[in-house]
Fold:
Amino acid sequence: MGAFDLKGRVAVVTGGNGGIGLGMARGLADAGAALVVAARNRDKSARAVAELKALGADAESVTVDVTEEASVEAMVKETMTRFGRLDILVNNAGTNIRKPPHELSLDEWRQVLDTNLTSAFMASHAVHPVMKRQGGGKIINIGSMMSLFGASFAPAYAASKGGIVQFTKACAAAWALDNIQVNAVLPGWIDTELTQRARREVEGLHDNVLRRTPAKRWGTGADMAGVAVFLASPASDFVTGSAIPVDGGYSIQG
Structure:
């Protein structure tokens, strides 16, 4: 298990106080990493940190607005002040506004792109010098099945998640010699607050997901833990620029 050991490593997970982010944080904590839960909702982050500490993890929260550069830079500085290092960044913070393209406003488009894609650029940009100075690091960007195909009700979301994959490849190529591996995870239909709202807003979504998914179930936060540990650990030192679906087989269906 040494290749998957994260003892002594520090991980920052944006949007880490719920859903996919918290599922990944639990996995990283179980492998021995210290955790920084970085999100806007302080009360929700406090509950997530308490849960991680109950699992035996060294965990703290940092309040951040991932759409503001100064706030993202402060997140990195606060992590360094508290822990003295930063080894793993999970760019998970995200949002969605479900409207067809002709009903989406420019402000709504920008809100989704800024939260899902530009935030990943700003956070990666901020951690790069830290990781380079330390001799390496791991960046995990959260894409989506919609990195692979579109949906009429999510044009901005699909564009942002497609952009995540290409941004991941660019960073992987640019920072390989700095020993920084950059990979993307493409979750399928995971049971989170975001997708629970989608089920209320998109008629027939639940049944369509079950019909198309070979595993015949929705994913859970726990399903995201293993891939997070793999991509954050020495086990993936020669894996970079990849985009790994974790979707119960949804995206392989025609």
About this structure: Residues 2-244 form a domain with the Rossmann fold fold (CATH 3.40.50.720). The mean pLDDT is 95.
